[in-house]
Design goal:
Helix content is about 85%, strand content about 0%. The chain is mainly α and about 200 residues long.
Length: about 200
């Protein structure tokens, strides 16, 4: 889709916004719940799991947020013919990740590697974001950023309440309810709009 409208900046902005809203509606709703429920999840999956391994899951899940945003922005730059710079940004992520691992591993072990992953993915996402603004005029509006932050914070609050108040009595239904509530929040914040998605598909066929 991006390649078909690469020369139309208004359409490109609209499509990129929709892509970010779709992918982050899921990421910002699911990631906080997994982070907050990380200990029960790991303990239920692995016999020798502990809070350390649960923290690893939390760091790696957090890195999915910039990673998923990078999927959209990377595709945007690729459609605009910026493959060279796309490769440069991902290449720069290699020495950055190596340096972070060299510094963090002696102190935090596997946790340091997970932290390095989060920082590296965040760096690449920011590089792609600023590049999209510089070359294509693409930007995320303050209103949209606010809705993303609200979804993240409210989903985290909902998951925390579900874990503290409901999980001891309802078990995994508390997590399922938290995820369902976060999905509803995404709809109420107008981040998840299925009609908009299907309308775009019809307009491009």
């Amino acid at each position: 889709m991006f390649s078909k409208i690469a020369s139309d900046r208004a359409a490109l902005q609209s499509l990129a916004d929709m892509g970010l809203k779709l992918i982050w509606s899921g990421a910002l709703a699911v990631v906080p719940a997994i982070i907050i429920f990380r200990a029960p999840i790991m303990i239920s999956l692995y016999a020798h799991a502990n809070f350390y391994s649960a923290d690893l899951l939390g760091w790696l899940c957090a890195s999915f947020i910039p990673l998923s945003g990078g999927y959209i922005l990377g595709t945007l730059l690729l459609a605009a013919g910026k493959l060279r710079w796309l490769n440069v940004f991902y290449f720069l992520g290699i020495p950055l990740n190596m340096a972070l691992n060299w510094f963090l591993l002696p102190y935090y072990k596997a946790g340091g590697a997970a932290m390095a992953t989060l920082v590296t993915q965040s760096f690449i996402f920011l590089a792609l974001l600023f590049s999209g603004r510089y070359w294509l005029g693409f930007s995320v509006s303050p209103q949209l950023w606010l809705r993303f932050v609200l979804l993240l914070v409210l989903s985290a609050m909902l998951a925390f309440i579900a874990k503290q108040a409901l999980f001891p009595f309802f078990g995994w239904w508390a997590l399922i309810g938290s995820l369902a509530g976060s999905g509803l929040l995404a709809v109420l914040l107008r981040l998840l709009d299925i009609r908009e998605f299907f309308h775009l598909l019809k307009s491009r066929t």
